[in-house]
What does this fold into?
Amino acid sequence: MEKSTIINELEKNIKLCTKCRLCKTAKNPVPGEGYINSKIVFIGEAPGKVEDDTGRPFVGRAGKLLEELLKGINLKREMVWIGNIIKHRPPENRDPLPDEISACEPYLTMQLKAINPILIVTLGRFSLNYFYPEGKITRDRGTLIRVGKYNVYPVYHPAAALRNAQMAETLRKDFMNIPSILEKAENTKYEEADIPIHDGQLGLGL
Ligand code: URA
It folds into this structure.
């Protein structure tokens, strides 16, 4: 099946999804968007208020910062794919619960399988731990990690950077390294990265 067909089918399924309680309180599902042939994808946690209002990922204040950071490495949001682990907004932006994460997990797994990116940039602790449960954001940010067949590059969440100037500085630096990390990932896709290969523990099928 064509990549675009798979992505569109997944989007339809996400829009109809009632597998967890979040669909009852959210206004709109946020399946993810962007260039499905991109070598890089950016994965956040869950939609916030503006995302819930619009059905689009990273369109609030954190999204504006993400766009600015992308511009710094000569990218526009439509040149990459941007998604979240959770497709419906948790009420009051609370942390997603374990059963909500498992209900939503097949969507991102299938989206990533279809897109088959070279580099997954995880935005924030939650996204890092989804792929790499033993990961520590303060320790691992800015390093390339192999998770199954994927290359994961954790950085701070833009929303956290909006609250903390030092984190913003670090996020900026880590973003500026994305082009060289991508190159490294392209050359190490089937070899070793910085941290021993992590097999994935979430049944991600990675
Ligand atoms: N924060 C996220 O993690 N994802 C979004 O889409 C918006 C804000």
The CA atoms of residues 28 and 97 lie 19 Å apart. Confidence is low (pLDDT under 50) at residues 195-206. Strands lie at 33-34, 40-44, 81-84, 119-123, 145-147, 150-155, 195-198.
